[in-house]
Automatic annotation (TrEMBL):
<feature type="active site" description="Proton acceptor">
    <location>
        <position position="166"/>
    </location>
</feature>
<keyword id="KW-0413">Isomerase</keyword>
<comment type="function">
    <text>Involved in the gluconeogenesis. Catalyzes stereospecifically the conversion of dihydroxyacetone phosphate (DHAP) to D-glyceraldehyde-3-phosphate (G3P).</text>
</comment>
<dbReference type="GO" id="GO:0004807">
    <property type="term" value="F:triose-phosphate isomerase activity"/>
</dbReference>
<dbReference type="GO" id="GO:0005829">
    <property type="term" value="C:cytosol"/>
</dbReference>
<protein>
    <recommendedName>
        <fullName>Triosephosphate isomerase</fullName>
        <ecNumber>5.3.1.1</ecNumber>
    </recommendedName>
</protein>
<dbReference type="InterPro" id="IPR013785">
    <property type="entry name" value="Aldolase_TIM"/>
</dbReference>
<comment type="similarity">
    <text>Belongs to the triosephosphate isomerase family.</text>
</comment>
<keyword id="KW-0312">Gluconeogenesis</keyword>
<dbReference type="GO" id="GO:0046166">
    <property type="term" value="P:glyceraldehyde-3-phosphate biosynthetic process"/>
</dbReference>
<comment type="subunit">
    <text>Homodimer.</text>
</comment>
<dbReference type="InterPro" id="IPR020861">
    <property type="entry name" value="Triosephosphate_isomerase_AS"/>
</dbReference>
<feature type="binding site">
    <location>
        <begin position="234"/>
        <end position="235"/>
    </location>
    <ligand>
        <name>substrate</name>
    </ligand>
</feature>
<comment type="pathway">
    <text>Carbohydrate biosynthesis; gluconeogenesis.</text>
</comment>
<dbReference type="Pfam" id="PF00121">
    <property type="entry name" value="TIM"/>
</dbReference>
<feature type="active site" description="Electrophile">
    <location>
        <position position="94"/>
    </location>
</feature>
<keyword id="KW-0963">Cytoplasm</keyword>
């Protein structure tokens, strides 16, 4: 059975006191599902979050990292820095990184390699824009994003890859892909992995999360689809009660 994951991406929200308050609330929640739970605070609060959640069943993960091991990259953070504060999983390729910081598939392929070289797990994000869907080009766009960033990997690297399909038009907009649209794309992704490169075992074992305006009131329907293995949650992850309603929607 594939790992079910619900990961909260806090983005550039929450200073230290707000992070402490949110973590206190998270600790009061009860998990009734088997999903792995993760939260991604901003870099400056990672270590505090890691310490504060020590012993709790919530993994602290990073929102991004640089592809270089170290060096003259002012303002950037490396894989080994993340590891040194307890981080073992990193989100890469979020649409906001692609759109506002010009991250390309080529950059992301390098970031994936660096993360894996450092024994980290990657949550790799991708997804089409509204214009792609309107022109019925969405599958091609997604296929290209995945192939460019991931299809150079050897088979055994896939055990450290989690995919997150996040249609850009559904992120932070309140507009969610229907459960059927999510299922259709997730099944397509799995088929692409199986047929174009890696075979059925790898395709069946990779967890594919959905992201884009997942809320307590729609999570159950989305998670009920056979190829949806969890969610990457933005806005709703900033409220501990809402986030755990989503975690417990499995
Ligand atoms: C995201 O940014 O990954 C995301 C899914 O955001 P939201 O849940 O707010 O749409």
């Amino acid at each position: 059975m594939r790992t079910q994951i619900v990961a909260g991406n806090w983005k550039m929200n929450n200073d230290l006191p707000e992070t402490e308050a949110l973590i206190s609330n998270l600790k009061r929640q009860t998990k009734t599902s088997h999903a792995e739970v993760m939260v991604a605070p901003t870099f400056v609060n990672l270590y505090h979050a890691y310490e504060a959640l020590r012993g709790f069943d919530i993994e602290v993960i990073a929102q991004n990292m640089h592809f270089a091991d170290n060096g003259a990259f002012t303002g950037e953070v490396s894989a080994s820095m993340l590891e040194s504060v307890g981080v073992k999983t990193v989100i890469l390729g979020h649409s906001e990184r692609r759109a506002y910081f010009n991250e390309t598939d080529e950059d992301l392929a390098k970031k994936v390699d660096t993360a894996l070289k450092n024994n980290m797990r990657v949550i790799f994000c991708f997804g089409e824009e509204l214009a792609d869907r309107k022109s019925h080009n969405h599958k091609k766009v997604v296929e290209t994003q995945i192939k460019n960033a991931l299809f150079h990997l050897p088979d055994d690297a896939w055990k450290s890859i989690v995919l997150a399909y996040e249609p850009v038009w559904a992120i932070g907009t309140g507009e969610t892909a229907t459960p059927e649209q999510a299922q259709e794309m997730h099944a397509f992704i799995r088929k692409t992995i199986e047929e174009d490169a890696y075979g059925i075992d790898i395709a069946n074992n990779v967890s594919i999360l959905y992201g884009g305006s997942v809320k307590p009131n729609n999570a159950k329907d989305i998670f009920s689809k056979p190829d949806v293995d969890g969610g990457l949650i933005g806005g709703a992850s900033l409220n501990a009660e809402d986030f755990f309603k989503i975690v417990n929607a499995f």
